Fold each of these.
Amino acid sequence: MNDLDPAASLRMIRESQEQARTGTEPDVRLLYLVWGIAWAVGYTVLWTSARGAGGAPSGPGFAVFFALLGVATAITIVHTVRRSAGTRGPSTRAGAMYGWSWMLGFLAYPFIISGVARAGASDEVIGLIANALACVIVGLMYLAGGALFCDSGVFVLGLWILLVGGVATVAGIPGSYLLLATAGGGGFLVMAVLAHVVQRRRRAALGEGGTADD
Amino acid sequence: MTELDAVIHAPARLRVVSTLATLPHDDEIAFPKLQKLLDMTAGNLSTHLRKLEEAGYVRVAKTFAGRRPVTYLALTTSGRRAFEDYTAALTDLLKGARA
């Protein structure tokens, strides 16, 4: 097998590189899917619960919501850490700092919400700020991610989530929850589908060399 | 006829170099991770890495993670250039074959 012809060599290069990327970069389809489900189901639960109670969602509603977010966070961390393990250097460091930025943003989040509540905000105001602030953090993080990884899809998602946050706040309670569930969660799910299509196309282009190794 | 770089033009080493070339500039990959990506035995991979290191294409950094020694690998500038020249030569050959 020492006599590699040029076509076989090029194919081998493409296959090794595709395999290397799969093994070192997170699968964004999985992450979009997980967060799409968490938002779509979680905010639908809050919306149903808020409508039933005629104001703020119930305790059990929030329990389901936070459980979903917790699972999505855990999957995201385990998956990205596993994929990036075993590499080091400037881009690995940049990726780690980006990951920590998410954490830090959402570390400040509960303090802001509870501070607003303690200052006497009504349930409606608290709900609106909680939803809007989540969208602002997520939206800005995706804008930053788009810039960092030079990925315009991620950038557009950031733009979309910011837009959803703005419109949801104007819509008021409980409509805000419904918008985050449909337009917000839906945004993630659309991205999951788009990422899947892009990957299928890339794999298909790889296969043009002639192997059916995929 | 274009001469192909004999150091790279062997299946195992071609896969090693192609994989290392996907790393962003200045990033390095740990030996076990590279081994997993390539699905090669440690001995086999070491042999090929040594040849690439001798050619000046791969840079080897040995450090410690706690007490465990870890070897990090990356393409050198000339390794990256050699890989680019190699793929360019392949493309030329293919064009020549089709013309």
Amino acid sequence: MNTRPGKNAFVVFIHKLGSPPWFYQFAGKLIPWFWALFIVLTLGGLYLGLFDSPADYQQGESVRIMYIHVPAAWMSMLIYGAMAVMGFVALVWRIRMMEILAMSSAPIGAAFTLAALISGSLWGRPTWGTYWVWDARLTSELVLLFLFIGVMALYHAFDEPRKAARAACLLALVGLVNLPIIHFSVKWWNTLHQGSSISATDSTIHPSMLWPLLIMAVATKFFYAANVLTRARVVLLEQDVRKAWVQDAIDKKTTPLQKEGSDS
Amino acid sequence: MNPPVHNTRVSRAFFALLRRDLLLAFRRRTELLLPVMFLLVVVSLFPLGIGPEPALLGRIAPGVLWIAALLATVISLESLFRSDFEDGTLEQYVISGHPLTVIVLAKILAHWLVAGLPLVLMSPLLAIWMNLPRPSMGVMVASLALATPILSFIGAIGAGLTVSLRRGGQLLSLLVFPLYVPVLIVATGGIMAAADGLPYGAFLGLLTAGLIASLTLAPFAAAAALKISLS
């Protein structure tokens, strides 16, 4: 440990994480734990949500879609925020690991957005009588999906991975500045142009429904963490395939390469 | 370095570039007319596709005019930095020592004067075509005058990001249309409010706020985007 005086261990640790071999190893140690926590929490949360919580007195059994829908919608926004913040760090301090992490976040965020949209429209069918309503939150979520798709499309349009990541990080950042404006304008548009099609019930949620929801919300965080680290590891292996540390990693253990390919 | 002298140089670079871009645009007059012609053709398709019923056309007129303006802007934005990128002029700008942000600002302004302003001037004619209710005519022109520069500013970021790509046009639309959502909502909302005899000042105020925000922020982002594209 070459801990220089004046720099504490935490800073050294953070700096080390910026180095690909170190990150690769460290992430590899964390990933199984995150997956395990995700599985345990999801099973618990889904059991509580699907079997051990009451049906809603207005929505009936379809309220159980909430245990997937709401965490997915939360994650979609959280991941966009995380991606843009990591993109900012990547652009300002030119940290390659941050570029990779931000770009690995985009497909996961898009998937969560899509999951929120699909589960939302499945819930809308019995509740509103139609699969799609230009409801403010649905519309915001749709625009968020477009923003994710834009970031991913830009990332894949370049041949050079680092240039691609930097361009896409900048776009994510521009989107982050725009996102609150989009959200409020859509909300406003919805109240302006058409009568509100749903009224959010102000009644506080019962603990038997709140707990599975919160557990699922935590579970999806671990899913994201495990997924983004796995993707980042694969991207690292792909980009650094000619470097010595990748050869070492492959020699030590061949499994990482057999995992499903990243989004190249 | 003496700050005033430096400022003069920057402003001189700004106006020189503005003049150059306008001159280049006026040397190619047919290209100058393209955004306007595009707007004309697109808007004229709507009555043909929907039917000539005046009441219906009047109702959808704000949305149609604005969406046509978005499309016309994005199509013209694709060439904002293209020729400068291809012949290496852009690199000369970067090494000229002048802030790229100012250069980008001049280019955006020139672009708006060439591609945005004609749309604004053309819009009353199209509004009559689309049977836009008479009281909202002024608000429609004002909304276009205030907000087409926003489209140019935001679009310049996308144009900067996609300039080095071979087929950036469709990608550019994909990148910037979601960012245009608030502009579209507020502008059409204001026109509709005016058509219904409701107060519309807040809408124009919001568009002005958006114009100021994009004027101050977007050139920096577009300059950063260009630097990434040139790297």
Amino acid sequence: MARTEKPVDVVLVGFGWTSSLMGMELTEEGLEVLALERGKDRDTVPDFAYPKMADELTYGVRYKLMQRPSESTVTVRHNSNQKAVPYRSLGTFLPGDGVGGAGSHWNGHSWRPQAQELRLRSYVEENFGKEIIPDDMTIQDFGVSYEDLEPHFDFFEKVMGVSGQAGNINGKIIEGGNPFEAPRKNPYPMPALKRTLNDDMFTDAAKRAGLHPFPLPAANASEAYTNPYGMQLGPCNFCGFCERYGCINYSKASPHVCVNGALKQRKNFHYRTECNVLKVELAEDGKTATGVTYIDKKTGEKVFQPAKLVILGAYAFHNAHLMLLSGIGKPYDPVTNTGVVGKNYAYQMTGGTTLFFRDHNFNPFIGAGANATSVMDYGVEQIDFAKEGFIGGSILNAGMTNGQPIRNMPLPAGSPSWGAGWKQAVRENYGHAMSIGSHGSNMSYRDCYLSLDPNYKDEYGQPLLRMTFDWKDNDIRMTQFMKGKIEPIAQSMNPDEFRSGYKTQDSHWDVRPYQTTHNVGGAIMGTDPTTSALNPYLQSWDVHNVFVLGASAFPQNLQFNPTVLVGGLTFWAAKAIREQYLKNPGPLVKA
Amino acid sequence: MSEHIDNEERRKFIRSSLSIIPAVSLTSTLGMPSWANAATEAVDLDAYQPVFFNTEEWKFLLAACDRLIPAEGDGPGALEANVPVFIDNELNGSFGRAADWYMQAPFDESVSPLFGYQSPLTPAETYRKGIAAVNAYTADTAGKPFAELSESQRDEVLAALQNGDIELDGVSARNFFGFLLQNTKEGYFADPIHGGNKDMAAWKMIGFPGARASYLEWVDQKDRSYPLGPVNINGDRG
């Protein structure tokens, strides 16, 4: 029998970006807000303090800031005919752990979506015709527009302190910025980061090719900055330990640096760590939630936490997992293509080319996390899908960051992997390589989905979440198209050698090498309760006092890193809760 | 700086520069923080008493690491860098136990390697069984344990393990070789706090400044070699 805690107005499940931001919004309404985080407490000091953070083995290779599979993982398979096996050790994606979640260990790539990505199905149908959408492709509109979200993107960029060069302010195109971005009301809060050698070289080559290079928008502060919550950031010192590390320097945006110091001062906000939420409890009629049940990992005790409003702000696939375990919304069935929870899981299609220059010295250990120059000439809105034979797009990034030697040691094709030849290749090539990568969209498909695994359980006896996913023809065509654009640029830069890595028609999803942690879908938003789990305010269609934040709401993946859209949607949902839901609790959209 | 001096001179230089490190990093007037309490005294590989490995296994490990990153050419070999000490530490710790991994049954090792590690064996168990199985294989084929083979014979066995040309008894050759190679490179390049990368010599070889982690004034200095040697987490300078 679970112990019952004192009731609160709002319980937030997880304490990463979304719960931090929602905590700020709802405490302003005077509500009693509690966040439950299953990992440990974390803050810049002592957890990310120099010099212990500058330890590649511990954080970069042994993943000490990440969720441990021994505590929580998923099972994986390529198709419904296979029996899934556990993702036993980390590789392809790295879910975060502890206060701050994945907001601790990201690089700070801060992209707004292109406007048409939020209404992708409508955009494709209007411009290219319904018939170009493959039968098994289940892309949808988000049900919210770029214009709706623009003020929230703007505010989130100010909270994070994004450094960048605007390319389109109220429709006016600005030289040096991204001319293909959707119109912004304001410039970035800080100027772009300083440029490194690879930036200069790629900028020149891209311009020669008639493209439009610009600095990648970076949640790495380029100067001293105070955000709207009064939190202070210091200029990034290009320490080179960004992705997989907490920031030693109060420069990379994270919930700790940008939000939590202010949030923790509010008397109506509390959080408890090492509290693992197992289930959202529903009232007898199944139409409202009464709170959540969690295990206090410090004592092993099972606790019921009553709450008037339950907001899931865990990592994307944990949100879907909790909904499936709690019976919120109908589970998706790919055979009948009915049900919604678990539907439209999507990943991210990436590829890249590495260029080797014996006569250039890139000092790859000098780099901010989002230290890169990008082009968006092959973005979703720039490509003729009918002509090219795929739906999607990509940004191309030339980045130089995280140049630590265990995990960042590109060598020319044909180099030995050990022995005297390997040592020689390492000596000759470290510091002499740069890359141009494609970070592309991934569409959603009828047979790529999340469900409960029938065979494997977690340490509490609950079924693991099962991911059924593989690469599809459409997205392979997209990445091959990008290869065809990147390689000529690489060649034009006259490297001594270059080598490419792009998925081909023979590729299947490989969970071993790191790819990205941009997992999306499973609890998608939309305008129709028969095809989405959440309404356009991220409210469960079925249980009106449950809201579900995060990239689980994306009906397919963007060509971008998800964080800015995740933050923007959080503020958008918060506005609806504050202005509509609290006055009149119930469904915000009629089903 | 090692590019233009030969190996022997380089080693002499490393030895002589090591001797001055304590004086540098203990200088309290530099305002060194409390973590920089003493220079890291790297152990002597010959005198090291392994904690995880038994005598036979240790001989194997030294003989294998010596071929994976040999001493020949500029830059340290795995033995000069104390890589075996690192591997002994790792296997005796949470990595060796697979403490962070999901290790619940059932284990289906018949699935495609694309689905990642599916063995019930921890890395420590994989090493133990792998070493015994390779020694049994070389006893069969060459009449000797692996450690007593010539350099070229050892290279052939390692290549055969990597290419899946040898089937080992009770353990996957791919998993065993995979751990051995990955851990060897980790021990070569990880901070010396973990037992390898003795004297930061692998960092010096490639010009990696270790844990310096502050370069703002260097961002604009393009196409120039960074001039300072490495520091490690303990505050020693190399």
